[in-house]
């Protein structure tokens, strides 16, 4: 990697050599080429013109620009830092104008690009992702000659021919001094001083830096794409103006900020049906977050990176057994349910649950280890990790973090049965046998405990996850209903520790769209009376000076009426537990609950029969059910359903404004709700809302607000100190 690049610039016709920067392989998180700090000069090229008195010479690495193309769209330029390093790797192969031919046979390591998410193989002119698998390779292209106006590169083959011809004819000649003026001059009456015939086009040089491409076929792609016209001459009416060298020269300063926070994005159900979906969804979230970062967090020198966690496709589970027992009628619908709803059934199966948990756990640890190996400074500088999970992914992630296992529930159930058995009348012989069984079990537990202690002293068990989770964001999450069905009931402390200890995860945040049929609230599982307190409304991304979330006061869902207290028998006849009631029921939209329910069932269809039935039982109520009875039902049947006494929420002290007076409150709010669109159809949004989180600018700002919280505070404090 000792090759270096020399390039010459002329000043007043005199050539002077400048030392380029050498190659290295330790930048941008992994192997690849990078440039030393004493790099190439920064120059902006207005209108494609060059600095005055410059002579024609071979293009410098900073003038060439590399491009990539995804999803067969237009070519996108790499940032300057990436393009310089790709160009140096290209020249190290001995194929570039300034490369050393002796390096032609030497293998060149891949170049890390796009914030370390991708690598470029210069030899094959392809790019591929580092952290996930992708079937389609991303083509890359070296740009030397560019179309005026759009600055799209000419195809590499044509570009090479034009560049070779240009150097053969004009190398060493001085360019025009007044490059700003000549752009606007028409080329009427100017004869071409040189021409080059290509397969479907020809190029005319009207002067050293007035070059036009003419199409010899009217259907030429280039002729169709060019929209900028220069005058009315032959050159301007049918020709495309070309520029040699990119509009902006590549500099090392054009470099992405260092990653201080990584976010693992975990998918829910349905990935078997569309295996690349989480990669596309994460890309949408990443692109949206980039826009928000540029708008609101550009003063910070760090940035947040999003990595997709695709855990489903590697699992074998039952192989093709379920497919083999699926009837052929309505096969399309059956396949959709097998690919989506089956994941919920797999997760509730004792046979396959562990495989799903281990699949996600191993993928999270693999990604973290790989990221740290390519970014050794991440841990040293206190880099943080957050997780964004969607749908069923929230439940699996939660179980991994907490180590929850259904075996514990089974053991508790057995213990309960034993206690009940002791209360029944039994013969003397049964009592003796039961006592003997109890002593034997006690002895067995003691032996197991001693054995586990011995194992713990000799073998230190590695942590389930190799990192501490800073923030756990749930999106469209059914986690609350899973916890409720596992026996979690509200407590009397407002701490998150009731469902997720802060030692495991610093902050839990539950995000949902108001019409998402799969989403459930978590706050009423911690404090019961929060079933009548509205979730925090997520700010629109373009809100001017929004109130910080920690300063927003809790308010009633319906300030016009008091909470009521009812008995279990009454509540059971109306609606189920408030902790498991979907968020939509709590909102009084002025529509029949039945209508909203029907729309929600449509949205639940993709989640499968099990959840669909559960949702129908929640939503599909007669329109005769009044808001008053709904409100009453919300406050019953949540706690211990054995008791027949009043278990509803007592009236809460509140002010005339509808805000709560000081009482037992949550340490931090957990439920955050997206605002409904002004023209959004609630029926349609019930179908689409479960997947509407990925491209939301509101959610991107919300996520970054919490992840940049400490960085923003540090910056503000340092600014105050400076003052």
Outline: elongated
End-to-end separation? 47 Å
Question: What composes the largest sheet?
Answer: 7 strands, parallel
- Could you tell me the radius of gyration in angstroms? 33 Å
Task: Tell me which CATH architecture of the domain at 258-403 and 464-553 and 668-715 applies here.
Answer: 3-Layer(aba) Sandwich
Helix fraction, binned, reads 25-40%
Low-confidence stretches: 1-43, 46-50, 96-103, 178-186, 223-236, 561-651, 653-657
Structural class: alpha/beta
Strand content: 15-25%
By CATH reckoning, the class of the domain at 258-403 and 464-553 and 668-715 would read Alpha Beta
Q: Can you count the helices?
A: 21
Annotated CATH topology of the domain at 258-403 and 464-553 and 668-715:
Rossmann fold
Number of strands: 22
Mean pLDDT equals: 73
Q: Order of strands side by side in the largest beta sheet? A: 17-16-18-19-20-22-21
């Amino acid at each position: 990697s000792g090759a270096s690049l020399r390039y010459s610039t002329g000043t007043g016709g005199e050539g002077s050599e400048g030392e380029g920067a050498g190659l290295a392989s330790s930048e941008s998180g992994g192997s690849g080429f990078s440039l030393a700090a004493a790099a190439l000069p920064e120059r902006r090229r207005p209108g494609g013109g060059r600095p005055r008195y410059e002579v024609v010479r071979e293009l410098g690495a900073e003038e060439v620009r590399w491009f990539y193309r995804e999803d067969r769209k237009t070519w996108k330029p790499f940032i300057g830092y990436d393009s310089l390093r790709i160009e140096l790797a290209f020249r190290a192969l001995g194929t570039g104008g300034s490369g050393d031919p002796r390096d032609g046979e030497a293998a060149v390591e891949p170049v890390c690009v796009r914030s370390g998410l991708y690598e470029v193989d210069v030899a094959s002119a392809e790019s591929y992702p580092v952290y996930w698998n992708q079937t389609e390779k991303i083509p890359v292209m070296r740009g030397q000659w560019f179309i005026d106006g759009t600055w799209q590169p000419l195809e590499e083959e044509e570009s090479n021919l034009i560049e070779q011809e240009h150097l053969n004819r004009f190398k060493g000649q001085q360019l025009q001094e007044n490059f700003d003026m000549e752009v606007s001059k028409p080329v009427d009456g100017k004869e071409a001083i040189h021409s080059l015939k290509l397969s479907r086009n020809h190029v005319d040089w009207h002067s050293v830096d007035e070059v036009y491409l003419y199409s010899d076929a009217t259907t030429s792609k280039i002729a169709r794409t060019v929209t900028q016209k220069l005058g009315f001459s032959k050159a301007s009416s049918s020709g495309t103006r070309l520029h040699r060298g990119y509009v902006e020269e590549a500099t090392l300063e054009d470099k992405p900020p260092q990653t201080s926070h990584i976010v693992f994005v975990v998918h829910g159900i349905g990935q078997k049906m569309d295996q690349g979906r989480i990669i596309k969804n994460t890309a949408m979230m990443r692109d949206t977050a980039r826009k928000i970062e540029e708008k609101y967090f550009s003063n910070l020198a760090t940035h947040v990176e999003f990595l997709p966690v695709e855990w489903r496709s590697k699992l074998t589970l039952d192989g093709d057994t379920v497919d083999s027992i699926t009837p052929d009628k309505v096969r399309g619908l059956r396949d959709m349910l097998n690919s989506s709803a089956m994941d919920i059934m797999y997760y509730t199966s004792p046979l396959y649950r562990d495989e799903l948990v281990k699949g996600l756990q191993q993928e999270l640890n693999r990604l973290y280890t790989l990221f740290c190996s390519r970014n050794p400074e991440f841990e040293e500088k206190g880099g943080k990790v957050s997780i964004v999970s969607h749908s069923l992914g929230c439940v699996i992630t939660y179980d991994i973090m907490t180590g929850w296992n259904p075996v514990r529930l089974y053991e508790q159930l057995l213990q309960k049965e034993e206690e009940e058995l002791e209360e029944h009348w039994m013969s003397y012989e049964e009592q003796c046998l039961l006592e003997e069984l109890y002593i034997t079990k006690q002895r067995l537990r003691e032996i197991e405990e001693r054995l586990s202690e011995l194992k713990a002293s000799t073998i230190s068990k590695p942590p389930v996850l190799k990192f501490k989770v800073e923030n756990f964001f749930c999106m469209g999450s059914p986690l609350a209903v899973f916890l409720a069905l596992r026996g979690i009931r509200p407590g009397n402390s407002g701490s998150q520790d009731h469902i997720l200890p802060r030692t495991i995860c610093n902050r839990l945040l539950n995000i949902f769209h108001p019409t998402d049929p799969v989403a459930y609230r978590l706050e009423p599982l911690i404090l019961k009376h929060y079933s009548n307190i509205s979730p925090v409304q997520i700010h629109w991304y373009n809100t001017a000076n929004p109130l910080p979330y920690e300063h927003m006061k809790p308010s009633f869902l319906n300030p016009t009426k008091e909470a009521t207290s009812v008995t279990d028998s009454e509540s059971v006849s109306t609606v189920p537990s408030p902790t498991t009631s979907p968020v939509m029921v709590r909102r009084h939209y002025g529509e029949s609950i039945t209508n909203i329910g029907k729309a929600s069932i449509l949205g639940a269809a993709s989640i499968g029969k099990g959840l669909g039935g559960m949702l129908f039982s929640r939503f599909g109520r007669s329109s005769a059910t009044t808001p008053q009875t709904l409100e009453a039902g919300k406050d019953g049947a949540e706690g211990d359903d054995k008791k027949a006494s009043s278990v509803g929420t007592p009236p809460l002290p509140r002010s005339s404004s509808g805000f709560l007076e000081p009482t037992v409150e949550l340490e931090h709010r957990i439920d955050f709700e997206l605002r409904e669109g002004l023209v959004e159809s609630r029926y349609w949004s019930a179908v689409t809302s479960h997947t509407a989180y990925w491209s939301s600018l509101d959610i991107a700002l919300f996520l970054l607000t919490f992840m940049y919280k400490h960085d923003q505070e540090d910056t503000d404090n340092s600014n105050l100190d400076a003052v």
